[in-house]
Structures are given as C-alpha cells and as structure tokens.
Design goal:
Distance between the termini: 50 Å
CATH class of the largest domain: Alpha Beta
Structural class: alpha/beta
Radius of gyration: 23 Å
Number of strands: 27
Length: about 575
C-alpha cells in the first residue's frame, strides 16, 4: 500500500518536505519576519494600525522588561487576553526573552486558572483587567510573582484610549473590582523596558516554546509541550501551502476573529502572518457580529480563518450577507467538523470555497488541509501537509488499508514530544509503526480514501453505541443541519435500557413551528433507523467553548443530571 498517495495531489510548487532548520528558533523566525515586512501594516486594532516595525520595537521593549524582572529562558509566562494588540506584543516579547508561553483562555473560571497556572509552574502573567479579579482569587496558590495588567484601550491614542477604558469599566461594567497591589501596567512595563538593555538569549530549537493546554472538553485539561521545531514546522508548512494564492495576491489581509490563545489562530494568523506579512484585523469579541461586520466592511479580507459555528452564524446575519467578498481568496475551516450545508451556502454567498483542514493542540496544530487552488473536496479534511504522514489504526491494533475506519494517527515534526510532566498520559497517545516511528493517536475516528484524502467520522469519545452499532454524531448533525428550519444542532448519546444508548439531538431552530416529529421524520428520510434521534430537545442556544466548539459533553452531563 502506498503510504503517501496524497503527494499526487500536491499543487505545483509545494514541496513534499519542509526544512525544519530554516530558522534557529522562533526568535529567529519572528525577528526575520518583522524585519522583512518592517514598513507593512501588521495589525489593525480598533481602527488603529500597527506596522511590523512598530511591533518589533514594542515587543523588544517588552522582552527587555521581562529580563529586567529577572526572568530567565525557560521560565513560564501566562498570557490571558482576548485578541487585543497587547497579545502579539507580549507574545513576541516573551519569546524574544526566551520564555515559555502558557496561553490561557480569558473566560476561564478561577478553578480552571489555578489548575493551569500550578500545572505549568508559571511565574509571570499578562492579563486583561477584566479578569484580574479571578487572578486575585487564586494567585496565592500559584508560583506567579510578576503580574502585568492591561486594559483593552491601553495601546490606543488619546482620547480613544480613555474612552474605551471608561466605557468598558464604567458603562459596561466589565471590570470587577480587584486588588493586586504589586501589579504593573502594561504600558508602564513597555516604558521601563525601553530604557533597559536587552540580551538575545541562547535558545535551542528543541527547547520548550509553548505549553498549549488542550480544550478540556473531554476531561482534565493537559498541557501539550511544544518546542520551537514544532511551531517552525507548522509555520513553514502553512506558508508553503498558501503559496498558490500568496504569489498572486498583494496586500494580504486576514481576519483575527478566532482567539489567538488558541493554537489554530496562533499558528495561522499570528506566526504565519509574521512570516508572510499578513495584516491581521483584530476582533476582540467575534460574537458581536455588528462590530465584526463593520470591521469587515472597512478591511477587505483575503484570508478568512474560522470554524463551522462562526460561518453558520454569519450566514444568518443580514449585514454580513450585504458585504463585498470580491477580495476573499481563502476561507479556512478548522477546530470542528465543517457541515456540508454551511460550506455550500458560504460558497454560494461569497464565491469562495471553504478549505477545510485538521489538527490539534498536540500537533501545533495543522496536520492536513485541502489545497487552496480550487480543488478542495468538501467533506474531507484534505491531505497531509509537507513532512507529515497520517495513517489509520484499526481497533485490532493493525494499520488500515484505504477506506477502512479506525483512529487517525500522525507522524511529523509538528507533533509534540508529550504532555507536560505527564509521562503516563503521553505513553497512552503514541503508538509505534513497523519502522519504530512514534505516531500520535489523535482520538479521532476516520479513514483515508484511495486518493490519499482523509475523512473524519467522529471523535472516539463521542461515538454512540446503539444496539451494537456505532453512531457518529458528526454524521447525524451534518444531515439535520440541512433542514431549512434548523440553525444549529448537537448530537449526543443518552442511556437507554433497550439499546445501551439512544441518539438525542439538541436543536436551535430558525422557525418556532418546527416540531420534534418533523425532525425525526426528516432524519428517517436521510439516515438508517438506528442513527435516527429518539429524543429531540429545542434550545435557544447551545453551549460552546470560547473558540466556538459546541460542548457535547456539557449537554450530555446536563441531560444526565435531569434524568438521574
């Protein structure tokens, strides 16, 4: 069996292998990108433009400040911010100081923050004031010694800075009172750093760069230990993949709606953006679609990274549907399964076919993606990126042939070495192939077609067992999402005395007249009987992570608590 049939589908000019030694480390990659695009626009934040040269200077000041504090290469620093301009400045500055980044979801509860900070051993944090009260509640139980606080408007010009901070704090009351007397303001830190010396640290490309925590949607959040090579490999692979479009388009502009603390946007928007000179339009709150549409109107987007729930929501927004999409060249979907109905409607509206890819925090993240040259195959996660091998492991522990279903496994330079300080957990997720190579077990069920394109069937842990038959929630959701009166749908397995589990769907409906019987009838017309939902529950909204993934686990837990 050909282990790399996908190479036949690589667009012209894309190499089968990438050079993971193209940069000495991420510091080298960042500094060369900032220098190469010095005069170009790097970020747009609340209508203020920051050039790459400005980001270079500000991040250098921040790196010098961190060294001034006595932080040493290898020390961990938590970044807990939405997509404000302070994030890339702090990110690049911390990396240039040789620190290890611990990206933290701003919406975490104090309990979740405490787990992440203690598990990682973070000794410093940059946090937006909106969440500082949560930090106050747990900081005594962590190793954090240095706190840098910023407000959303801090990097804007007068009087917008004062206005934004006043509205956020006094009008919207989004900054609960807190007491962290030793904290330093982010702007003050930059000012101090401007007068401090900076010493470029010696960092090996095998040194730890990020502790990127998994979403925790299926259990306790674990830190994927990513070294400099892991991220460089993905930067080089994604940049190479974009070449068919990048070489033909000037003034690349990408939407920064997905949170940068998430591995998808971190790599595709921020790190690849520095290499290729993208302009990133920062969106603090993508759920504020009115503001988002205004940003899109002002800044014609050429690259639109997103996920199914974001695309679906925008397709139901009349302001979005009125926008001009003539500049849009690439729409990238990741993070969750792309539904065919959403993909079809997006292409019909924008004229741009969605390019679906696949990856995980543990793989920095990109493993596979559809080509961006117009040959995208909707319903697949594409083909492995350069220097990457993907295979399917069957339940009996043997490697699958084409079209056989099993767990998708991956080998490549972007794959983590393991979970941070969790050797037993690490051992569970790797399996050796015939050549002794360590393949990462993704936990996703899928198959490789004859042509080398991969297809996800479902998450291993989300699979529903109905009378001995496997039911994959993605398939049920994809079918029901095609109903014209269904906006969103989530499928879970619930306990059933007769069939082990039964299929239950939670639905947000577009038309209030839609009934459970109509949903079941539509399912029976399109699905085998055992896959059809026995139970239908209508909701005003579905629980999601801050990235936008629907939380099936939470729905299942809520259902179990009601019926226990």
């Amino acid at each position: 069996m050909d282990l790399k049939p996908w190479l036949n589908h690589y667009p012209k000019g894309i190499p089968a292998e990438i050079d993971i030694n193209s940069y000495a480390n991420l510091i080298d990659a960042i500094e060369k990108g900032l220098e190469a695009h010095a005069s170009a626009e790097a970020f747009v934040y609340m209508d203020k433009v920051f050039t790459f040269s400005e980001i270079e200077k500000l991040s250098l000041n921040f790196a010098a400040y961190l060294q001034h504090l006595g932080l040493k290469p290898g020390d961990r620093i938590a970044l807990q911010m939405p997509n404000c301009i302070q994030y890339p400045i702090a990110l690049f500055g911390a990396l240039r100081a040789g620190l290890v980044i611990v990206n933290t979801n701003p919406l975490y509860t104090p309990r979740e923050m405490k787990h992440q900070f203690t598990d990682s051993g973070a000794s410093a944090i940059v946090i937006v004031a909106n969440f500082a009260s949560h930090l106050e509640a747990v900081i005594a139980d962590t190793a954090i010694e240095h706190v840098i606080i910023t407000e959303l408007g801090d990097m804007l010009n007068f009087p917008k800075k004062q206005l934004v901070n006043f509205v956020v704090k006094r009008v919207k009351k989004m900054v609960p009172a807190y007491r962290l007397p030793e904290a330093v303001n982010f702007v003050t830190a930059l000012q101090i750093g401007n007068s401090c010396p900076y010493t470029r640290p010696e960092v090996k490309n095998t040194d730890l760069a990020f502790i990127q925590y998994t979403g925790g949607t299926t259990g306790v959040s674990k830190g994927a230990a990513l070294d400099h090579i892991n991220l460089i490999a993905n930067i080089e692979a994604v940049a190479a993949w974009f070449q068919p479009m990048v070489g033909k388009t000037k003034d690349l502009c990408t939407l920064g709606a997905l949170p940068f603390y998430h591995i998808f946007a971190l790599t595709v928007n921020v790190l690849t953006g520095v290499k290729l000179g993208f302009k990133n339009v920062l969106v603090v709150n993508p759920r504020d679609q009115k503001a988002l549409c205004k940003d899109l109107k002002k800044n014609p987007i050429t690259i639109f990274p997103g996920l199914n729930t974001l695309f679906n929501a925008l397709l139901h927004n009349e302001d979005f549907r009125k926008l001009d999409f003539s500049n849009l060249k690439i729409t990238i979907a990741g993070g969750m399964a792309l539904q065919k109905s959403v993909a079809d409607e997006w292409e019909k509206l924008t004229g741009c076919r969605i390019t679906e890819g696949y990856g995980l925090s543990e793989t920095s993240p990109v493993l596979s993606v559809n080509p961006v040259d117009g040959t995208q195959q909707i319903g697949t996660i594409g083909i492995p990126v350069p220097s990457t091998i993907m295979r399917v492991l069957k339940e009996d522990g043997t490697w699958a042939e084409a079209d056989e279903v099993g767990e998708i496994c991956a080998f490549g330079p972007q794959v983590m070495k393991g979970y941070y300080k969790r050797p037993q957990e690490t051992e569970k997720v790797f399996v050796k192939d015939e050549l002794g190579r360590d393949f990462f077990k993704t936990g996703d069920i899928g198959l490789m077609r004859e042509d080398g394109y991969f297809k996800i069937v479902d998450r291993k842990k989300d699979m529903i067992l109905v009378s001995g038959f496997n039911v994959y929630p993605n398939e049920v959701e994809d079918v029901l999402a095609q109903h014209p009166d269904i906006v969103e749908v989530a499928c879970v397995g619930v306990k059933d005395a007769r069939s082990t589990e039964a299929v239950k769907v939670f639905i947000v409906r577009k038309n209030e007249s839609l009934t459970a019987d109509e949903v079941k009838r539509f399912a029976r017309e399109n699905l085998t009987a055992y896959k059809c939902p026995k139970q239908v529950e209508f909701r005003d909204e579905l629980p999601k992570t801050n990235v936008g993934k629907i939380l099936r686990r939470k729905l299942k837990e809520e259902d179990e608590s009601v019926h226990s």
